[in-house]
Predict the structure.
Amino acid sequence: MRRLAAFLFIASIACLAGQPALADKRVAFVIGNSSYQNVGALTNPANDATAITEMFKKAAFDVVESRRDLKNTEMRRALRDFTEKARDADIAVIYYAGHGIEVDGTNYLIPVDAALERDTDAYDEAIALDRILQAIEPAKQLRLVILDACRDNPFAKSMKRTVASRSLGRGLAGVEPSRPNTLIAFAAKGGSTASDGDSKNSPFTTALLRHLVTPGLELGKAFRLVRDDVMNATANKQEPFVYGSLGGNDVPLVPARAEPAAPVQATPQSQFNPQSETRRDYELALQVGNKAAMNAFIAQHPDGFYASLAKLQLEKLAAEEAHAAASEKARIAEQERARLAAEGARKDTQAKADAEAKSTEAARLAAEKAKQAAVAQQQAAEADRQRSEKITSNPIVASNSAAETPAATPEPAPTPTPERKTNVAALSEGPPQADIAKSVQSELRRVGCLKADADGGWNATSRSLTLFNRYAKTSVDTKLASTDALDTIKSKSSRVCPLVCEHGYKVDGDSCVRITCAEGSFLNDDNQCEKRREKKPVAKRDSDDRERAAPLRPQAKQVIARRSQMPTSASTARPLTGQEREQGCNSYAAIMSGKCP
């Protein structure tokens, strides 16, 4: 009776979820942006997002994420996190209420901190619709984007155009998805605007709440009913439109309620497998996927193989909760540290904030490792369970095993230790290592710590990540690429590493510009302009030296030779005649002129 009561308890939880066991996994992400910082606030997006979130929860979606008033960085990070949740989903839905804009044929969703002073600012300050589609791309059966974002946009009125030919549309532009089984629902047809509404919710959202999650209602028909309701409510001024197409099979967002199944007769195979009932209880608890269901299963089945699996599942859930809490605490500490640094707080206050940031970062890293270890343990044990089920599913093998050991109970799976890192790499799901490395390299280039291209190599990137740790005061592991490193770098909204320019260039903001020296100057080895030195004039010989250096005329040679034969004493020297004195024949220059004998 106790086992039956626990089984009925778990079954009742699954029934409250509104879907049978092993149903398709459905995930939803709801965004409502109302409190815009640079234009007037919108009234209804917050209300619309709240109502849509409750609608998905009542429809028993497996995951319903809801965020309000997201800034640029927060919105990109939330989309990245939701991509992981959509990776193993069959149906993924993103609903957005807020401002949207079309620039040159591309649609953008606008975060609340966008300024959009120029048309080119949309590339950096807004989120392209293609990025939204990428977030739900992993879904297997249906990818749905619902945009209540075709309102009359105030950004387009004040935005400056950098190129005259670049178009700024009214509302959003019509778009055709490139992938099959993808739908994009606009509140208003491409090129037109939608009403925010005078009631609690917009006309488009009001119609969605009425029809979208009707059990068993085919999605195409649901949107046709939404269109009719909106056109009636707006006197045919607003026409919703759906872009994309689905296959021939009906795809309801919520499956029709199934009739209770007839009790299953016991088969000979189940008689030889004493664990079959316990396995069914475990699978039902696993389908519910929360701590309450697992604790109820363990209370009913405290021992055995499946009890060990349930305990590992509890450890995994606890590790995920601890990791989420540590990540949020680290994010808040980093924001506080950045705020104090920007406000120029006292050094002791900044030091305290730095220490708190380092402490929370270390706690987050520890939680990440614990989460990976718990996931590896749970997946390894789950693999053992599946192998054992393959054996028991064969009637001959099962009967032989039962005949040999009728009361035997399967041994619990060996518990891997956290040191078995190879299990984490082999079993954990996520993007390939090369893709993570390229993403880390791209972010390092954005914050100025890497100059090389994002090619997936890690040697130069490891040194760049070390440089990032030095200037960002973080302790990211530099040995290999990880999502932890990617998250830490993405949290930095501006340059981290200082800009270094080559010789002949200097830093100007976030770029290097060529150094131009003034006329008469040159660029020296220290990257400085230096004035050229003027050449000093060469000293000239005096006139007597030039005269002595000049060749003697024949007459002068004769005079010098004649006088050299004269006595050297003053008493014997011939006195000059009057004519010679008039001609100045007492100097070497006069003799050389040829006028003197």
Observations:
- Confidence is low (pLDDT under 50) at residues 13-22, 266-272, 395-431, 568-572.
- The CA atoms of residues 498 and 527 lie 17 Å apart.
